[in-house]
Amino acid sequence: MQVQGRALQERREDRIDILVRATMHAPQSAGVVRLCNISPIGALIEGSDLPAVGSNVELQRGALSVSGKVVWLGDDQAGVSFEDRITVQHWLPNAEPQRAVDRAFQRIMQEMRGQDNVQAMSAPLHGSQITADDMERSAGALEELADALACEPELFARYATQLQSLDVAAQMLRKMALRED
Fold it and tell me: Does the global pTM surpass 0.85?
C-alpha cells in the first residue's frame, strides 16, 4: 500500500486513533464507514464501496458534519482531507452523542443496583437472565443490521440518523456487557 505510506509521510498534523461509525455521503454513493483515525484536517475511513480519489465527501457523526475530499484510496480504506478544520474532541467516542450513551448506561446501572443489587437483567419475555455474552451477541446483531440496511442506498438516505442510533445502542450493550464480566 504505497499510496498510504506516502500519505503518512505527508501528514501535517498528528492523528488520534478512534474507531467510531459515521455516515459518508458522496456524489455517487453513501454508506456507513468507520473513522479509524482523525486530525483537525483529515481522517482515515474504512468501509466498502468507497469513492474514488478526488471525490468530494461529507462525513457525518450525529449532529457533526465535515466536508472533504478523498486524497488516497486502497482496499477498504481511504484518506480524507477536510475542507475546514474540525475540533477533534467533538468527534471522539466520549463526546456527544457518546456522553448521552454513557449517561443512559449509568442510569440503567443505577436502576439495576436499586433492584436489590441484581447482577443481571431479567429478559422481558421470559424468566431467564441476560448475560454479558447475550448483550455482546445482540450488539453484533444490531451492527450487522445497520450495515445491511446501510448498503441499501434508498434506505440509507432515508434513515441515516436512525442507523447511527443502532450503533449507539450496540455501544451501550457492549458497555453493559463489560460491567457484567
Answer: no
